[in-house]
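Entry 14. Structure prediction run on the chain below.
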Amino acid sequence: MFRVLALFINMKRKKYIASQSAKGALLLELLIVISLLAIILSVGSQAVFVSLQSSKISGERDVAVGLASEALEAVRGVAEEKWQNVFGLTKGSQYHPVSSGNKWILTASSENIALNSANYTRYIVIQNVCREADPNTRNVTGITDTNGTLATCTASGGVYDPSTQKVVVTVSWPNADPVTISEYFLRWRNKVCQQTDWSGGASSGAKNCPDTTYGGIDPAGEIDTSGGTLKLQ
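Output returned:
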């Protein structure tokens, strides 16, 4: 009888040990599954965040490109109305377009634009243009110094072109590279007016019309004004 009881107790003990081992294995498997899920969720959330951030930056960049293009079109309108309104601006300084009545004007300083939960800074810079001296290959080759003098152009043997201006538009916003676009604007249309006074010395070659104080023709001797007529020499 004692032997049977001992066998019974031994069987129960083996079952208990097996049961505890199974529980331990199950717990280990559960911990492994939880760890794998945590890793997958972490990687997945990072991928979703990067995707959303990339989409946000891409959308903001599209807006910045649109704002820059709008500024270029505003400068185009200003130049077509009156070339002097572009040519007469301080070279290298910042300007921004402002709608006045039914037309655009350019005013000093940059501007801040809040659009679609982003804050953009936009400004326009006007630069002079120097062309190659050879009339057969007179392409745009460089920009004069930003204070508007001709020293850089003439020193390099180039020809200053008062009928061409380089317009550079920059749009920047936080946490992204700025958008910069540029274009060359040409003085293709001029007003016609009567000029009565050519005295006073050399001039830059770009004048307001009407303007009775041109200050001469540069270079001198190109036009003969004697006899009440203009004669190209």
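The chain has a mean pLDDT of 74.
Filed with the rest of this week's runs.
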